[in-house]
Amino acid sequence: DGGITQSPKYLFRKEGQNVTLSCEQNLNHDAMYWYRQDPGQGLRLIYYSQIVNDFQKGDIAEGYSVSREKKESFPLTVTSAQKNPTAFYLCASSPTPGNSPLHFGNGTRLTVT
Amino acid sequence: GENVEQHPSTLSVQEGDSAVIKCTYSDSASNYFPWYKQELGKRPQLIIDIRSNVGEKKDQRIAVTLNKTAKHFSLHITETQPEDSAVYFCAARRVNNDMRFGAGTRLTVKP
To answer: End-to-end distance of chain A based on CA atoms, in angstroms?
Structure first.
């Protein structure tokens, strides 16, 4: 059954700790994305990757880091430098070239206290 | 980078009426424009999309129009039903594959 898996669904951390959100896809898609969604707001692009070992910053990359060592995996690390990390994080993937839709995972809700 | 603006932010219609949501984009090189529907606590789901070489596309009660010259595109929902109530997002994708979203429209269909 093909799809995108994000884990965990809910994540709680103390302020000052780094935390890594997992995103795995078995759709054989080249491109992968991370978005942040705050209550009542749209999706803001954090990072995206078009191919293994390559990624680009989106609009709100500060305080986040990513890696793309495998085609199937695109983990996102929320560092202690991120001032307001509590949010809903969505991972997505798509085939390339660019005229194809994104397929989203179910999201991870991160709460930092 | 690409900037996508979406209006209105909230829209309330009576069941059976039509709903229209409008978006503008800034990068004339953008070539793909999807629309997503998101229900509370769930992931966005694609409902319709349009590519830059097409002016209009329709799928049952949903249609999307694209005006490349003016750099705007719109979602039209006819004969609205209560189950159409959700948040709708437009997006624009550039040739380098980055995808930017509008801020969303909360549609409420009153029975």
So the answer is: 36
Nearest to B84, CA basis, from B40, B37, B50 = B37
Q: What is the pLDDT of residue B86?
A: 97
Dump pLDDT digits (tens) for A65-103. Answer: 999 999 999 999 999 888 899 999 999 999 887 678 999
Task: Please indicate whether residue B42 or residue B11 has the higher confidence score (pLDDT).
Answer: B11
- 8 Å CB contact between A75 and A19: no
Which tens digits make up the pLDDT trace of B31-73?
999 999 999 889 999 999 999 888 999 999 999 999 999 999 9
Using a CB–CB cutoff of 8 Å, tell me whether A5 touches chain B. Answer: no
Averaged pLDDT score across all residues of chain B: 94
CB A44 within 8 A of CB A36: yes
Q: CB within 8 A of A56, min separation 6: which ones?
A: A47, A48, A49, A50, B96, B98
- Selected residues 22-81 of chain A with any CB under 8 Å from a CB in chain B: 31, 33, 35, 41-45, 48, 50, 56, 58-59
Q: Smallest CA–CA separation between B30 and chain A, in Å?
A: 9
In this complex, the residue of B44, B94, B103 whose CB is nearest that of residue A104 is B44
SS3 letters across B68-109: CCCCEEEEEECCCCHHHCEEEEEEEECCCCCEEECCCEEEEE
Under 8 Å between Cβ of B77 and B59: no
